[in-house]
Amino acid sequence: MRIVYVITDLHVGGVPLHLFRLAKAMRDRGHSPVVVSLARTGEVSQRLVEAGVEVFHCNAAGAWDARAIFRLARFFRQLKPDVVHALLFHANVASRLAMRLARLPSEHLVCEIQTVEIERKWHLRVGGMTHRMGHCVIGNSSSVVEHLARVAHMDRHRLRCVHGGADVSQLWHAEPVSRESLGITGEEPLVCWVGRMDPIKGLEVLLEAFDQVVQRTPARLLLVGDGPLAAHVREVLTDRNLWGSVSMLGTRSDVPGILKSCQMFVLPSFTEGFPNALLEAMALGLPVVTSDVPGCHDLVTDGVNGLLAPAGDSERLADAIERVLGDDPLAKRLGAAAKDTVSTKYTMDRCVDRYLAVYEEIVGEAGGRFCGAWQ
């Protein structure tokens, strides 16, 4: 199949990296993926090119640069796709309009939403009003699908659930990153957070919790990632005098190696979809502590394969972190169960199979026989 993926931008983040793995997997299975970004080139663009995936850019000057929609329609006419798969709000809306402009059948369009939206509810209103301009809408967890049906009022028969997946084999073969290369000389346990530094990620709650932890338990927190909140995070670290216990590593290409050097993973987000960072940490057998919100509790059962804490509750988060750090048998049990969860249910191969079944609905090969089990 000729599959065109459309995404808002290709800067490092959970969805662009998920798309990178998906497009690469489709190419490896003999399909012809092409990626189109509404924005200018980003860090993930080069990774795609190096993996043998063709990339185009619409060079949008901003979120509302309508010229990008016309460029996208031109790409559609040139590429003649069997399937168009859009990811993220702006790419979804732009693709719906561009399919009309290109005079391509809307039934060949699949849109995807990867978070339970709580900040920009107008995204849900627009998505709900336009979701029929395509074959279906994919959510990456049961929580996302339910949110789209209940809050965005999307037709349930147009919704599909395709859980994210981890490339388990590649993660397991990653080389651990040495403490010395990270500038760490002590032997304290390493707690890792990975993601885009955005207000919804709960970083202030994490720092408040970690401030409590290090007053009672030796530990160091590694923050991996960048984003609009980075400057504020630095201010908080200074105000709380935490620079001796927290390392900001910025954007890294060796995240699996960093995770393999850590003793636990924490993700205190206020909202998620099916977080890739959490998925990968679990795949590597790390004990995880995360917030009890949709997306996270789709992956983690409290006390079974991780610990859950109420979103925004720094004291409960600190207690959960200390509980793992102070109980080695518990940490090992949670880590082993987390690894088993991902390796048996959420591999990248299973994820790709499910995407292909949705695509085959469109080209008529699968006859929609899998749909009922995913709604």
Can you offer a commentary on this structure?
With 375 residues, the chain is an alpha/beta fold. It folds into two domains: 2-165 and 347-374, 3-Layer(aba) Sandwich (Rossmann fold); 169-345, 3-Layer(aba) Sandwich (Rossmann fold), CATH 3.40.50. The chain has helices at 14-28, 43-50, 67-79, 89-101, 121-130, 142-150, 168-172, 203-214, 230-239, 255-260, 276-283, 296-299, 314-325, 328-345, 348-363, 371-374; strands spanning 2-7, 32-37, 54-57, 83-87, 109-113, 136-139, 159-161, 190-194, 220-224, 246-250, 264-267, 288-291, 307-309. A seven-stranded parallel beta sheet has the order 3-2-1-4-5-6-7, with helices on both faces. Strands 10-9-8-11-12-13 form a six-stranded parallel beta sheet, sandwiched between helices. α3 (67-79) crosses α4 (89-101), α8 (203-214) crosses α13 and α11 crosses α14 (328-345). It starts with a strand and ends with a helix.
